[in-house]
Specification:
The chain has helices spanning 2-7, 54-61, 83-92, 100-103, 110-120, 126-136, 155-167, 185-202, 213-219, 237-242, 247-253, 286-289, 292-295, 299-304, 321-326; strands spanning 10-23, 26-39, 43-47, 69-74, 77-78, 93-96, 173-177, 205-210, 222-227, 230-236, 317-318. It is an alpha/beta fold. This is Peptide/nickel transport system ATP-binding protein.
Length: 328
């Protein structure tokens, strides 16, 4: 897997990305030094708890937020924030939101919803584009759905309409924010299978933002685990999810049904206005809490020595003093 990934040409990249917001008189470091790359034809899962910064990172990669510092690159070139350049960019990098009901205008038919993008970009052969996009999204025969309204569709069908709206612009990359979170379990597998099929048929790349490591296992080539504005572990999905090295990744995996024993994290949920010194995870770290970090002499480092920002490489990597000391 790693050998294959190293040969993929990078399509979208975050390079030392920082995004800050003012919050109650303090600065919230929503994205606090991130390097992340998505290759051509690659699916990368960005995983973490709510509030870890993954949605802000996704919005910044889409050009919806401007970075405080650092850079977004597409095809090797820095993102141009001029209105004309952003319009062209967003045709090639499309967003798929988690809530299809909220994404679709209840007063617009399916045809109008899918045709909106082609109309904005002045594309010819509108009806042919809409028909092809609906068909690729699994709504067949497409004409049967043209005059339907969102309330007349199932949740899975609405999500397929949202995906069809993205496909209508022939993008090269999808940014899918919790694409199956609002769907029944029986429908989730169908939507994930659809995303995989689109990758095979169209060569689409995707960044899938999720809190669900089970979803990452089923769809991604690589996974990046994010905590408090920074990626703390990344690598090929099989290696990260079968042998997680960061205590936070281990805790996330422990809630899956097949896990023998859940890890209960201590402390408060992360606050991006108060990033702890040392390892940002140390106030909640189960390894530090039970004394295992002290046993190998890194407890002081965990509490006081910052970790380097991980680079955007395909090989497995982790930002953890304990993992570095033990080789785990």
């Amino acid at each position: 897997m790693t050998e294959v990934l190293t040969k993929r040409k990078t399509l979208l990249e975050a390079r030392d990305l920082h995004v800050q917001f003012a919050s109650r008189g303090r600065k919230a470091r929503a994205v606090d030094g991130v390097n992340l790359a998505v290759g051509e034809g690659e699916i990368v899962a960005l995983v973490g708890e709510s509030g870890c910064g993954k949605t802000t990172l996704a919005r910044t990669l889409l050009g919806l937020e401007r970075p405080t510092s650092g850079q977004v690159l597409y095809g090797g070139a820095g993102l141009d924030y001029g209105s004309r350049a952003l319009k062209a960019y967003r045709r090639e990098v499309q967003l798929v939101l988690q809530d299809p009901t909220g994404s679709l205008n209840p007063r617009h038919t399916v045809y109008e919803a899918v045709a909106e993008g082609p109309r904005i970009h002045g594309l010819a052969n509108e009806e042919e584009i809409v028909r092809d996009a609906l068909s690729r999204a699994g709504l067949r025969p497409p004409e049967r759905f043209f005059l339907r309204y969102p309330h007349e569709l199932s949740g899975g069908q609405r999500q397929r309409v949202v995906i069809a709206g993205a496909l209508a612009l022939a993008p090269r990359l999808l940014v899918a924010d919790e694409p199956v979170a609002s769907l029944d379990a029986s429908v989730r597998g169908e939507i994930l299978a659809l995303l995989l099929r689109l990758r095979e048929e169209l060569g689409l790349s995707a960044l899938v933002v999720t809190h669900d490591l089970g979803l990452a296992w089923n769809i991604a080539d690589r996974v990046a685990v994010m905590y408090l504005g920074r990626i703390v572990e990344s690598g090929p999905v099989e290696q990260v999810l079968t042998a997680p090295r960061h205590p936070y990744t281990q805790a996330l995996l422990s809630v899956l049904p097949e896990s023998p024993e859940p890890v209960v994290l201590t402390g408060e949920p992360p606050d991006p206005t108060r990033v702890p010194g040392g390892c940002r995870f140390h106030p909640r770290c189960q390894v530090l809490g039970v004394g295992r970090a002290a046993e190998v002499g890194v407890d002081g480092k965990c509490k006081g020595e910052p970790l380097a920002v991980l680079p955007a490489v395909p090989e497995p990597q982790v930002a953890c003093h304990y993992a570095a000391a033990t080789g785990s």
